[in-house]
């Protein structure tokens, strides 16, 4: 039997790999489809999975609260397999048609990818034995994103070194790289089918508290500040983070003297090596520092580095070593900062009954930002009046806005999940909402409604 960490984590590894591998595939497709692979087409290929992810996060976040984490995770895993097969086998009689087929297939894949976010986070947190254990479980699950990113880089490096850059070999490269992403989903789909639903979720369903009966107006009224915090910071941060990650290879291609597919693949691995430890340092400090402090310190360092890149870009871009260090550090402190924190915080800032929905909405806001960053990046850097310098300054401004929202809207919750769940039920009772009519009893020690008001 696969343990629960792999049950949730491998799906997230799958997601991260599929999102990141397009980084190098973008360069491969540029070499393979020279005329057809325009800046707009590159943006479409990169953005398709992100748009699908937005829809997947919204839909499966909501369905996860209505019908359970387990059932929905089986569905997302199935979509990952189908989307992966379509992506790797994309083909039409024309090159342009093949690229459009690829865009559609990536959108389907993204729908499954998006669903994994709220479901993996919610189910991981609900298996925890304490708040500290909850944060550790969720952060370790998320850390497999870094492993997925790194694996995508390693396999890309192997492919570009194993095969010459002929049209046939380039075709093999991108198809094999996409096909590999199917394997983790194939491995875990059976175990997800036979897995048990989380006990915390089953208890809430037994109390008849679920999204079928909870009004959106109630959620917005009592949790608007939390939603602004988790969704707003995720939206702003992901504009920066995914523009960086999905176009790392393209950025490295303009830095220094060498811009071959081989050199870009090597440099891409170097960046991943610098960035990967950030996930596990964040896991180590997730309870020692707290999620809010991790968010603030990581975003602040990113802000400073982007300002340095913007001010001294003319000098920095001539040194690939110097740029790789600075660029890698932005990714390191993203992982030891807002990238980790935005994923963990919704699991502690929302009660069980709406956790998956609110996490899904927050994650969807992030992927909406990622789609903006992904689609806009090529257009920004290719604009002579804006270019890379303007892009770095824009990233710095987005980091500043993220810091401001974090200060005023984010909080660490070190209470047991049952505390917030009881407070949620008390709020429903106190307002006489229809959703509370089915409850058989009143909480023995209800917490004051001010708790939610203060923290939300």
From TrEMBL:
<keyword id="KW-0472">Membrane</keyword>
<dbReference type="GO" id="GO:0005886">
    <property type="term" value="C:plasma membrane"/>
</dbReference>
<dbReference type="Pfam" id="PF00083">
    <property type="entry name" value="Sugar_tr"/>
</dbReference>
<keyword id="KW-1133">Transmembrane helix</keyword>
<feature type="transmembrane region" description="Helical">
    <location>
        <begin position="223"/>
        <end position="244"/>
    </location>
</feature>
<protein>
    <submittedName>
        <fullName>Inorganic phosphate transporter</fullName>
    </submittedName>
</protein>
<feature type="transmembrane region" description="Helical">
    <location>
        <begin position="98"/>
        <end position="119"/>
    </location>
</feature>
<feature type="transmembrane region" description="Helical">
    <location>
        <begin position="172"/>
        <end position="193"/>
    </location>
</feature>
<feature type="transmembrane region" description="Helical">
    <location>
        <begin position="140"/>
        <end position="160"/>
    </location>
</feature>
<dbReference type="InterPro" id="IPR036259">
    <property type="entry name" value="MFS_trans_sf"/>
</dbReference>
<keyword id="KW-0812">Transmembrane</keyword>
<feature type="transmembrane region" description="Helical">
    <location>
        <begin position="357"/>
        <end position="380"/>
    </location>
</feature>
<feature type="transmembrane region" description="Helical">
    <location>
        <begin position="392"/>
        <end position="411"/>
    </location>
</feature>
<dbReference type="InterPro" id="IPR005828">
    <property type="entry name" value="MFS_sugar_transport-like"/>
</dbReference>
<feature type="domain" description="Major facilitator superfamily (MFS) profile">
    <location>
        <begin position="4"/>
        <end position="414"/>
    </location>
</feature>
<feature type="transmembrane region" description="Helical">
    <location>
        <begin position="294"/>
        <end position="314"/>
    </location>
</feature>
<dbReference type="GO" id="GO:0046943">
    <property type="term" value="F:carboxylic acid transmembrane transporter activity"/>
</dbReference>
<feature type="transmembrane region" description="Helical">
    <location>
        <begin position="71"/>
        <end position="92"/>
    </location>
</feature>
<dbReference type="InterPro" id="IPR020846">
    <property type="entry name" value="MFS_dom"/>
</dbReference>
<feature type="transmembrane region" description="Helical">
    <location>
        <begin position="264"/>
        <end position="282"/>
    </location>
</feature>
<feature type="transmembrane region" description="Helical">
    <location>
        <begin position="45"/>
        <end position="64"/>
    </location>
</feature>
<feature type="transmembrane region" description="Helical">
    <location>
        <begin position="320"/>
        <end position="345"/>
    </location>
</feature>
